Structures are given as C-alpha cells and as structure tokens.
From TrEMBL:
Pfam families: GLUCM-like_C (PF14336). InterPro entries: GLUCM_C (IPR025504). PANTHER family: D-GLUTAMATE CYCLASE, MITOCHONDRIAL (PTHR32022:SF10). This is D-glutamate cyclase-like C-terminal domain-containing protein. Gene3D superfamilies: TON_0340. The lineage of its organism: Eukaryota, Sar, Stramenopiles, Oomycota, Saprolegniomycetes. Residues 6-292 form the D-glutamate cyclase-like C-terminal domain.
C-alpha cells in the first residue's frame, strides 16, 4: 500500500501540495478508505461527487481532473463488489461526465446533475435528499468545496459560486449519520479538504480565501486528484487480489478522448487536449502502468509512453529471478547492448529476448559489419544523439537502417526537443521510439511524442533498490502490459 501511495505523493505539478502531506496520517487514511469501501455489502450504492468547473471563460467550464479518476473508481467498485455508482455533479458538467461514463462502458452507473444555489428549488432539495440514506459511502474526487464564506473558488481565487451546485450537504449528512466519507484532493479547495484547512491557509497560494471548510472521514491528498483516485483503485485491487479492478490503458485513453470531445479542458493550461493539471495523458498512462506493477508485486524498472493503437510492443519473453531461478515471470523485455559488444554475445542470450542495439551515428559501419558476421534478431536500433549530430546526419543514418532492416524500430536516445522536431519534420514517420534520459525538457518531449504518435521509454525514478539498480546497470528494460503503439514506418 505504501508503494502505491508514494506514487502520488510527489509535487509533480510544482504547486506546493507537499505542505498538505503528513506521512503517518496519509497512510492511515488511505488504508481506512480502502477498508471502508471493502466492507460495503455486495451491490451497495456509492455516491461519487466530482466535477470542478473552474474554466470560467469557456463552455463547458469543466476541467479534466477528477473525471478519469471517477470513472476508474466506478469500474473498481463494480469489479470488487458489483456496487452501483451514482455520479453527483453540477449541471454545467453533465454533458462531459455523460460522455466519460459511456466511454468507461461500466454497467449500473447513474448520473445526477444539480443546478447552482441561486437556481435551487424545493424540488431540487427533495431530489437530493432522496439519495441521502440510500448511499453506503460518499466519495469526493476533485469536487469543488465551499470555503469559510460559503463560496466556491478556483486555485486562482476566482469565484465559481454562480455555477456550482451546493453538494457539500451530502457530506454533512453522511458525517452526521455515520456513513463513510472519502475525499481526494490536491489543492485544498476541494470538498473534504477541511481536514487540512489550516495548512492550506498557511502554505497554499490564496489559501486564506480558497481553503475548503468541510472535512471528511478519510482524506487522500495527491499531487493530482485523478491520480489519487487511481491510487485508491489500486489499493482496492491489491486488497481484493484482483488486478482487473484497474482500468486498462485503452479504457483510460478512451475516457480521456471522450471528455475532450465533449468540451473538457485542462484546468491549468486551458487547452482542449488530454492533459490533466498541465501534464499530458502519457504521464497518467505511466502511473497506471506503475500501479499495476505494485498490485502484481512486480519490480518496475522502466516505463513506456506513447499513443495507443494496433502496433504493439512484443508480448513475449521471460525474466528469471536470480533469487528464485525456478520462477519465471512471463513478461516482455528488451536487452540493450552496445554495438561493439554484438560479436561477443553468446547466442543463447537471444533465445527469449528482443535485442536493442545502442549506437552512435559514427558506429553504423561497425554495426553493419557485425550484423553481417552474425545475423541477430534486432527489435530496436537506438541512436544515441550527440550535441554535434545534425538532423541531416541523423536522417541519413535512419534511412540506411530502414533500407537494411525494414522490420526493426528506430529510436533516438537522449535527444533534445529541437533535434527531435527537426528530424520528425524533415522525415516524418521515421522515428518509432524516443529513449529519454535528460530532464530539462522531458515534459515537452513527452508532449511532442504523444501528439505525433512516437513511443517513448523512460527509466522509472523509483527504481532505486539494489536489485532494480542491478537491472538498470545491465541495461535490460522490462515491460509489462505495454500495449502502447509506436509510430508505424
């Protein structure tokens, strides 16, 4: 459980959310939230409150954060207990959430939308109160929470009250009647974040104005609320020993595409693209990939990002655990080797692996001679780009490799964004993979790869144990469930 929670406890957005964290408290609340949902009788009704209409200059004003996580929880609840989810949101978010629910393709989901307080009627109140006692639990995911003055604010302290439904009363009812309340937030202005209102006011920008007043029983603070919801789903999957409780990568992408088609936008950038809190979808895909490793109790050495599609990475191969040689994990993996080492590698090493050859542009002749002497199954040619390598030289090398090895993938290692753009513009579809090691423009490179259908491999920062460090030093990268497409040549 700690490994899952640690994946969402780093300030990836640089917004200061670490000030809201408390290790012992957060671990306890996370475990308690999982247990609260696990104790529900089969077929229970669960209310999920979500929707943060912070994009006041757009119609709809719905941000992307929270929506995918809500759908992920709908799926997890259905898998572990055949529970029925009730989504409660604002009227302005209804169209987007309806599209998300349809894309998630989970049965037994009901969408309820409510008007803002200035349009609230007696009939509206009766409709909401009819749901109160029927719910076995209430979960808020990136749901706007009222501040001390009763109004709803964005992180920039813009007033959203005119379009936000006053659904905080659901939590107030639940808390007074012993119904579990779980809240997931990342900024302090979300429903249920009253537990950390003091820290929000003291440490978060605009905190004195925006801090949510109402707390909850079990609070999950995450760097991105969506990711906190995925962590909760992974915790449920681990608790019930059922990895099917996690959404597949393809479904995550389908939901993201659906919300964008319905008009949702990134809450920070304002762009109508599959970003969440300023990060491209590929980062969420990597998170789901990492959590699946945690649920299955497998080490994670790398992550692979790119667009989904029909062109998949290899799905065969074995890794033999040196601590337990009789145990083989059936998972794809690629062994990286230097071009100069090809001739000295024993043949058995390729029996159950795919080979990726690392080389510089200057080593191409050396590589071709080695391949002629001992033909080997090459999955990927990984060109390590130097600071002096011009795009024209890179393209010429790619063309030579394409002509002699039509089935192999072409990768660029350590490439800067400028060089990557130049190569792709002059020879589109020539690059299949980018192996990224530098950090200075990682987000920009990841975004470019996503938009242009180029797969991307990254070493996982959490791979710091002795065993995983050994694997990294051996230049052997392991991929599990990586149905991520490379760009077809």
């Amino acid at each position: 459980m700690d490994a899952i929670l640690s994946l969402v406890h780093h300030d990836i957005g640089g917004r200061g959310m670490t000030h809201l964290l408390d290790g012992p408290r957060d671990r306890a609340h996370f475990s308690e939230a999982i247990e609260a949902l696990s104790r529900l009788p089969p077929g229970s009704d669960v209310a999920i409150l979500t929707g943060f209409p912070c994009l006041l200059d757009y119609t709809p004003p719905t941000e992307t954060d929270g929506l995918g996580g809500a759908c992920a929880l709908i799926h997890a609840l259905h898998v572990i207990g055949r529970h029925r989810a009730h989504i409660l949101t604002d009227e302005v978010n209804a169209v987007v959430l309806k599209s998300c629910i349809e894309a998630a393709a989970v049965a037994a989901t009901v969408l309820h939308s409510f008007p803002p307080a200035n349009e609230w009627t007696h009939a509206t109140q009766v409709k909401l109160e009819a749901l109160y006692s029927t719910m076995g639990a209430y979960v808020a995911i990136e749901r706007a929470g009222a501040a001390e003055d009763g109004r709803y604010y964005t992180m920039r302290a813009r007033d959203m009250t005119a379009i936000v439904a006053p659904l905080d009363q659901c939590f107030a009812y639940a808390k007074s009647h012993g119904i579990p309340t779980i809240a997931i937030g990342d900024g302090g202005n979300e429903l249920g974040m009253g537990n950390v209102s003091a820290a929000t006011k003291a440490k978060v920008r605009n905190g004195e104005t925006i801090a949510a007043k109402l707390g909850c029983d079990h609070l999950i603070v995450a760097c991105i609320s969506d990711w906190g919801a995925y962590a909760l789903c992974a915790g449920l999957a681990l608790r019930h020993r059922n990895s099917d409780a996690l959404l597949t990568r393809e479904t995550v992408v389908a939901i993201a595409n659906a919300m964008i088609a319905a008009g949702a936008r990134d809450g920070i950038l304002g762009c109508q693209d599959t970003f969440v809190d300023g990060l491209p979808l590929v980062e969420t895909l990597n998170l789901v990939h990492a959590m699946r490793h945690c649920v299955n109790n497998m080490p994670l050495v790398t992550r692979l990002v790119g667009k989904t599609g029909s062109h998949e990475w290899p799905t065969q191969g074995f890794h033999i655990d040196s601590r337990s040689p009789q145990t083989a994990w059936s998972q794809p993996h690629i062994q990286f080797v230097k071009a100069r080492d090809l001739a000295s590698l024993p043949s058995p090493v390729f029996a159950e692996r795919y080979l990726a050859v690392e080389l510089s542009i200057q080593q191409l002749d050396e590589l071709e001679m080695a391949l002629m002497a001992s033909p080997l199954p090459i999955f990927l040619f990984n060109l390590r780009v130097g600071s002096d390598d011009a795009a024209t030289n890179i393209n010429a090398t790619i063309a030579r490799l394409r002509s002699s090895h039509k089935e192999a993938h072409i990768g660029l290692a350590g490439v800067s964004l400028d060089v990557l753009q130049a190569v792709h513009t002059s020879a589109p579809c020539s690059i299949d993979v980018v192996t990224q090691s530098r950090q200075q423009d990682l987000l920009q490179v990841a975004t470019f790869c996503q938009r242009n259908g180029i797969a991307m491999m990254l070493e996982h920062a959490a791979a710091d144990t002795a065993d995983l460090q050994t694997y990294r030093n051996d230049r052997t990268l392991y991929f599990v469930d990586t149905h991520i497409a490379t760009h077809a040549a």
